[in-house]
Write a structure and sequence with these properties.
- The termini are far apart.
- The protein has 2 domains: about 80 residues; about 30 residues.
- The longest helix is centred in the C-terminal third of the chain and has 27 residues.
- With about 110 residues, it is mainly alpha-helical.
- α1 packs antiparallel against α2.
């Protein structure tokens, strides 16, 4: 019997998760390196508009965080909803603090 077939709960067999193997990890590692190189190239080019470079760096950072959390911290797997909810709550609280700090510094 293969490990990817579903068995009834009370049949006496233990359920095993399929092993992903290194292929997906290698692809994600290469993606992380490419995202880092794109961000580095935008800054090292020198002739790039500063506003565009900052926006590009922020977008690359957000994509990098999603890739790192999804694959290296295994948040894409089942059973990780509570950690994801708490992290999103933390991001919301931190973002609110940053926005309010900027508001107080520049507009008051």
């Amino acid at each position: 019997m293969t490990t990817d077939q579903h068995l009834p709960e009370n049949d006496g067999y233990k359920h095993r998760h399929r092993h992903e193997g290194p292929q997906r990890h290698i692809v994600v590692f290469i993606l992380s390196i490419v995202l880092t190189l794109i961000a580095f190239a935008a800054v090292a080019a020198g002739g790039v508009n500063a506003t565009f470079a900052i926006i590009l760096l922020l977008v690359m950072a957000v994509i990098q965080v999603i890739v790192q959390m999804g694959f290296w911290m295994h948040l894409k797997d089942k059973g990780h909803l509570i950690p994801i909810i708490f992290m999103l709550g933390g991001f919301f609280a931190a973002g609110t603090c940053i926005i309010m700090s900027l508001y107080w510094v520049w507009w008051n």
